[in-house]
Amino acid sequence: MQRKTVDVNGITLSYLEAGEGDVILFCHGFPETSQSWRKQIPELAAAGYRAIAPDLRGYGDSSCPVAPDRYTLFDIVGDLIGLMDALSIRRAIVVGNDWGATVAWQMALMRPDRIAGVIAFGVPMMGRPPLPPTQLFPRTDDALFYTLYFQQQGIAEREFGRDVDATLRKIYHAASGEAGPRKPGDGTPNPFGMVSTRRGLLQDLPEPTVLPEWLAQADFDTIAASFRRSGFHGGLNYYRNLDRNRELQASLEGMRVEVPALFAAGSRDVGLAIPGMDRIIADMPRLVPHLRDTVILDGAGHWLQQERAEAVNALILSFAASVDATVQS
Fold first, then answer.
1. Second label for 118, Cα 20 to 30 Å away, from 63, 208, 305, 328?
2. Beta carbons of 251 and 258 less than 8 angstroms apart
3. Residue 290 a catalytic site member
4. Which CATH superfamily groups domain 2-327?
5. What is the pLDDT of residues 248-295, one digit of tens each?
6. Distance between CA 327 and CA 90 in Å, rounded?
7. Among this protein's residues, is 69 annotated catalytic?
8. Is-contact 270 182, C-beta < 8 A?
């Protein structure tokens, strides 16, 4: 893999790249970086593809604008289309996990002329909500949903930044398959659930004494160093645009994802424990008429491409081979 940079859409994007051929573009989630695709990029390059994984706006070595309103989905999609333009890429298959899955769905929705297919991990395609999302998320007298906890600038930044290594160890473990099976309300520690207004998000999460087998110390150190440089402000700003994204997406109302698609998740993904998620996934063909399959990988958690790299690589390669290569690059 080679680390490169390019100036697009008024910012600088840093990205990893390897291989030649039809393009597969990877989008990471929170709190991840392009390094989360380290197990995919070399394998796909060896299989004859050009694999590209940027640090999204606000992460790693890419630009981190200060203003929260610079992190809408339209900004992020604009960055990635600009990246494709700068690298003379006409079309690509886009693959995303977590927030990267949302970005991948939106790229396919907004720019089907540039996206040959979409693979999303962990987050299904969802329609425009009937109300601003911050009005829909739950809260009680002493706790609030994590997306609401992220809304006020500075609070989560200070908590996460006190000890970056401990923050990442706790979040990665609690959202992984190692944390155990997930059922709604079962009390399993969940970084993406309800957050105590007194204790914050991290205090109730266990800190593992060793890293999981799927995350080598050197890779963890690389990711942690990225967050020590960038902080968490950029990644948290994605959540602060949930209501604004809904406003802007009024122009897309009624549109569907009209390119081939694949959805996969781990059976222990924290997202599957959200009430109603099973119905959202079952309803996806209404929004994604060319959805080819929904795959659940037993025992895996939220970091699917890291936890089940071999299975994920096989899914990507099988899907990519089924998409007409003549329209990809």
1. 63
2. no
3. no
4. Alpha/Beta hydrolase fold, catalytic domain (3.40.50.1820)
5. 999 999 999 999 999 999 999 999 988 889 999 999 999 999 999 999
6. 8
7. no
8. yes
